Automatic annotation (TrEMBL), chain A:
Species per Swiss-Prot/TrEMBL record: Tranquillimonas alkanivorans
SUPFAM superfamilies, alphabetized: P-loop containing nucleoside triphosphate hydrolases (SSF52540)
PANTHER family: CARBOHYDRATE TRANSPORT ATP-BINDING PROTEIN MG119-RELATED (PTHR43790), SUGAR ABC TRANSPORTER ATP-BINDING PROTEIN (PTHR43790:SF8)
ABC transporter domain segment(s): 7-247
Xref: Pfam families: ABC_tran
Swiss-Prot/TrEMBL keywords: ATP-binding, Cell membrane, Membrane, Nucleotide-binding, Repeat, Sugar transport, Translocase, Transport
UniProt lineage: Bacteria, Pseudomonadati, Pseudomonadota, Alphaproteobacteria, Rhodobacterales
Segments crossing the lipid bilayer: none
Protein name (record): Monosaccharide ABC transporter ATP-binding protein, CUT2 family
Subcellular location as annotated: Cell membrane
UniProtKB/TrEMBL annotation, chain B:
Compartmental location: Cell membrane
Transmembrane intervals: 60-86, 98-118, 133-152, 164-185, 216-235, 247-280, 286-311
GO molecular function: transmembrane transporter activity
GO cellular component labels: plasma membrane
Family annotation (InterPro entries): ABC_transp_permease (IPR001851)
Topology of this chain in the membrane: Multi-pass membrane protein
UniProt cross-references to Pfam families, sorted A to Z: BPD_transp_2
Phylogenetic classification of the source organism: Bacteria, Pseudomonadati, Pseudomonadota, Alphaproteobacteria, Rhodobacterales
Protein known as: Monosaccharide ABC transporter membrane protein, CUT2 family
Keywords per UniProt: Cell membrane, Membrane, Transmembrane, Transmembrane helix
Main location (coarse class): membrane
CDD domains, alphabetized: TM_PBP1_transp_AraH_like
Superkingdom of origin organism: Bacteria
TrEMBL record, chain C:
Gene Ontology terms: cellular component: outer membrane-bounded periplasmic space
Name this protein carries in UniProt: Monosaccharide ABC transporter substrate-binding protein, CUT2 family
Keyword Signal: yes
Organism domain of life: Bacteria
Subcellular localization, as worded in the UniProt entry: Periplasm
InterPro entries assigned: Bact_Solute-Bind_Prot2, Peripla_BP_I, SBP_2_dom
Assigned keywords, A-Z: Signal
Domain Periplasmic binding protein intervals: 30-286
Family under the similarity heading: Belongs to the bacterial solute-binding protein 2 family.
A molecular function (GO) term: carbohydrate binding
Coiled coil: none
Pfam families given in the database record: Peripla_BP_4
Length: 257, 320, 328
């Protein structure tokens, strides 16, 4: 492939005591691509994501970002290199405003008499721009995040990732527990990100969502990658088959009993 | 592209709490004023202010610590240890410019010790500071050695008892501490960290906030304020007694909660806290003036505290 | 009971538990439990007691709660019982709390005395009294009247209302005012949490409420500095008199500044001395039936049989003239 991958992981092994959570998993992500990551519970999705996010260190394997070998030592380390993972809990402070959340930990300051004061005006301006780009509609930038809907919160979390110029955005079950209209909105966010040239990893249980927004699909099962599919060339049935192991069974009937 | 109108209330109606407290203050003052001709006298209002200074100073720090999701029940012990060191320093003939840093440093160090224990051991703050409370009281007894420190110089008493530009000097002390605290809490990145930790510590860590360091700093700030309170206490009363600091922690926590801080962290109001301090001090003063036994003071304060906590619980339920 | 009181009580328990359990069967062991540890008054009492213990060849231990907490006092009392002391003297904070424990100790053959403060409803054998509550009350008020005249308003600031001796003094003052000085009015009695800050607040508020207030009387060493400081801060030295039951060291500065021209108390060293003397005497099987002399004390000790009270003598009044003769 002529084009260097945005991100690639090769031969990733992660063990917890005697349990092998990831058994030499390969993973890749192109620029401007939405890669879905699917698999049953315990397939290794969240271990892989945590490795990608810097929360776990792999026992074996290599990771490359823009063709350079990298090792993330912490989630902050990953964020600094432009790989932003939005966990299900979103890492939002409920009793702080939208703008304050977007800039949490990276506030814009103006130094007066040697003291760094918050530059709220600049932060509000940039927050509005970010939300505008993503087409997130919120009643007021001063609203506490606690009072936002699930979809709006996803929007704020994504805006925070965009604010640090992350070009890999990993979203862990962003549509879980959302109302239908909200799910649609979040999927729109993902499409917007792709249009902006961002690479997105979408972890989801919902095959329908996956087919709506993804370009390719990585399927994990029992700590291995058992499928890397082009979304346009596959069907939900086939993907479900991979997830449940039915596809495997078809190919290797002797393992059925 | 379709725009979705999300329905969500704006910021919670925080005026509610401060308004409630203001109403309670007005009611209280009206009752006291109608029962005692002296209540609204300039001299009495000045007295209330002077009596509020040390509690108010401690409360500014307590508000920040409670917003952080912490609590410090050892703050009376910090006041006590700082005061006894201040007293000893005076006895050794040290001048004010030595004594003041001694008091401040002692307070800040003990506060930082609390913060370090809480952040490094992950012991719940109420338990950790309960433990240090014992230690600080023991230190007080060891240093004081059975002999009260009395007859200390009153060179600093102007800070509480003096007048400046026609107002009691204490007003300026309180004003300085609260403006400083407010700027720190609401206008600097450090304040954002404090609120974020109070909202969700895990989230704060995820965005890269150095949680432990921020906690130690917040507790140290409370300790520093306790050191200031100790200086003001000694300056005004010129002695260090065995029971010094009794009830300061309880009164400070009560005032802070009355003022709208949520014991679960994330929420708090310095203005509200200041009103909580005034509520407590006005109750203490007014009951004496109208000739009601001072034992009722706890009933009035406790009663309002319960009202406030019920309102809190109702609001929490409404949100979730 | 305040939060910190409870905490300090915990410290007291720790200290008690750490006491060495020395037990020499032939030496009489005498314990005394003050109302609070670490205040100069009881330290002075301990000095007198130690002096008596040395002269009489007995062992003396003094241990009190770190705050005026009756429950802690009870635990300390019981720990002395369990350690097999021959004589236990106590200055009770709360009679009801201690009553059953005192009875049990007596059943075990321990000599139980009250000293410094009494628990008249208990089975204690004798009360070693510094001065009669009545004399103390009368003296404090009489001395005040000498200075402010026979009419006017007086406010009282006391420590915790559970301290019986202070309640008795207040009652004596009120009775004296009623019977001897009909134009003296006691306008208020307030109770602090043991801090100078609260005493200061109460005194200031009393002066505000009563612009014609003539005196503020403090019932305990914990209140004296606060009330004197309040009068000084209000600029009313000479107009509002303060006085109280407090040690010369606590009152000295205010006696000299004129804010608190006198203080009424007794010599606690002598009281400690007498307590040990009586304890040793009873432990040796001695009896007390009338007035007696004690080697080492100047005055004759009175015995008041109706309440089994052993009386050290009349209260002492500390003023500018004699305050420097005392150090406690």
């Amino acid at each position: 492939m002529a084009e260097t991958l945005k991100l690639s992981m090769k031969g990733i092994v992660k063990r917890f005591g005697g349990v092998v959570a990831l058994d030499s998993v390969d993973f890749e992500l192109r620029r401007g691509e939405v890669m879905a990551l699917v698999g049953d519970n315990g397939a290794g999705k969240s271990t892989l994501i945590k490795t990608l996010a810097g929360a776990h260190m792999p026992d074996e394997g290599v990771m490359e970002l823009d063709g350079d070998a990298v090792r993330f030592t912490s989630p902050q380390d990953a964020w600094r290199r432009g790989v932003a993972t939005i966990f299900q809990e979103l890492a939002l402070a409920g009793k702080m405003t939208i703008a304050d959340n977007i800039f949490l930990g990276r506030e814009i300051t103006r130094t007066v008499a040697g003291i760094p004061f918050l530059d709220r005006r600049a932060m509000h301006k940039r927050s509005r721009e970010l939300l505008e780009e993503l087409d997130v509609v919120v009643p007021d930038i001063h609203t506490w995040v606690e009072y936002l809907s699930g979809g709006q919160r996803q929007g704020v979390a994504i805006a925070r990732a965009l604010n640090i110029d992350a070009d890999v955005i990993v979203m862990d079950e962003p549509t879980a527990a959302l109302a239908v209209a909200e799910v649609r909105k979040v999927l729109e966010f993902i499409k917007t990100l792709r249009r902006q040239g961002k690479s997105v990893v979408l972890i989801s249980h919902n095959v329908q969502d996956v087919f709506e927004v993804s370009d390719r699909i990585t399927v994990l099962r029992r700590g291995r990658r058992i499928g890397l599919l082009e979304t346009e060339k596959t069907t939900p049935e086939e993907v479900v088959g991979y997830i449940t192991g039915a596809a495997e069974t078809k190919r290797r009937p002797e393992a059925a009993h | 592209m379709a725009r979705f109108a999300f329905k969500a209330p704006s910021r919670p109606f925080r005026i509610g709490r401060e308004g409630l407290l203001l109403a309670a203050l007005v009611v209280l003052c009206t009752i006291f004023a109608s029962q005692s001709e002296f209540f609204l006298s300039e001299r009495n209002l000045t007295t209330i202010l002077r009596n509020s200074v040390d509690l108010a100073v401690v409360c500014a720090g307590m508000t920040i610590v409670i917003i952080l999701g912490g609590i410090d029940v050892s703050v009376g012990g910090i006041v006590a240890v700082s005061a006894v060191l201040i007293g000893r320093a005076y006895q050794y003939g040290m001048p004010d410019w030595v004594v003041i840093p001694v008091g401040l440093a002692a307070g800040a160090l003990l506060g930082a010790l609390n913060g370090a224990i809480i952040s490094k051991t992950r012991v719940p703050p109420i338990v950790a500071t309960l433990g240090t409370m014992y230690i600080y009281i023991a230190v007080l007894f060891l240093v004081i050695g059975g002999v009260w420190i009395s007859g200390l110089p009153n060179t600093l008493s102007f800070l509480v008892l003096g007048d400046f530009m026609g107002l009691p000097a204490g007003v300026f002390v309180i004003g300085f501490i609260y403006v400083f605290s407010w700027l720190l809490l609401r206008r600097t990145p450090w304040g954002q960290r404090v609120v974020a930790i109070g909202c969700d510590e895990v989230a704060a860590r995820l965005v890269g906030i150095r949680v432990d360091r921020t906690k130690i700093q917040a507790y140290a700030l409370l300790g520093l304020f306790a050191g200031i309170a100790a200086i003001l206490y000694v300056a005004r009363l010129r002695n260090v007694e065995v029971n010094i600091g009794t009830n300061i922690a309880l009164e400070a926590i009560a005032a802070t909660i009355l003022g709208g801080a949520n014991i679960r962290g994330g929420i708090g109001s310095l203005i509200g806290t200041l009103m909580g301090v005034l509520f407590i001090k006005i109750t203490q003063n007014g009951l004496v003036l109208i000739g009601v036994s001072s034992l009722w003071e706890t009933v009035v304060i406790g009663g309002l505290l319960i009202v406030v906590l019920i309102l809190d619980a109702l609001e929490t339920r409404r949100v979730s | 009971m305040s939060f910190k009181h409870t905490l300090m009580g915990g410290v007291a328990l720790g200290l008690t538990a750490a006491l060495p359990a020395s037990a020499q069967d032939d030496t009489t062991r005498i314990a005394f439990i003050p109302q609070i540890a670490g205040i100069p008054y009881y330290v002075a009492m301990e000095e007198g007691a130690e002096r008596a213990a040395e002269e009489l060849g007995v062992e003396y231990v003094q241990e009190g709660p770190t705050s005026t907490n009756a429950a802690d006092q009870l635990r300390i009392f019981e720990s002395f019982v369990n350690q097999g002391f021959d004589v236990i003297a106590i200055s009770p904070l709360d009679e009801e709390t201690l009553k059953p424990a005192i009875s049990r100790a007596l059943e075990q053959g321990i000599v139980v005395l009250t000293a410094d403060a009494d628990a008249p409803g208990s089975d204690r054998q004798f009360f070693v009294a510094q001065a009669l509550d009545q004399d103390l009350g009368y003296t404090l008020l009489d001395e005040a009247v000498d200075r402010i005249g026979e009419s006017g308003k007086i406010a009282i600031v006391s420590d915790s209302p559970t301290i019986q001796s202070m309640q008795n003094w207040i009652a004596a003052i009120e009775e004296r005012a009623e019977t001897a000085y009909p134009d003296i009015e006691i306008v208020s009695v307030d109770h602090t949490d043991g801090t100078a800050q609260r005493a200061y607040q109460f005194a200031t508020d009393a002066m505000t409420r009563n612009p014609d207030l003539k005196a503020v009387l403090g019932m305990a060493s914990t209140t004296c500095p606060g009330i004197a400081q309040a009068v000084e801060a209000a600029g009313l030295v000479g107009e509002v008199l303060t006085a109280g039951y407090c040690s010369p060291n606590t009152a000295r500065d205010y006696i000299k500044s004129g804010a608190m021209p006198y203080s009424v108390l007794w010599n606690p060293a002598d009281l400690g001395y007498l307590t040990v003397w009586v304890g040793d005497h009873l432990a040796d099987g001695g009896e007390i039936t009338g007035d007696f002399e004690v080697e080492g004390l100047q005055q004759t000790i009175q015995y008041l049989p109706e309440n089994d009270v052993i009386l050290l003598g009349p209260p002492a009044v500390f003023t500018e003239e004699n305050v420097d003769d005392f150090d406690f």
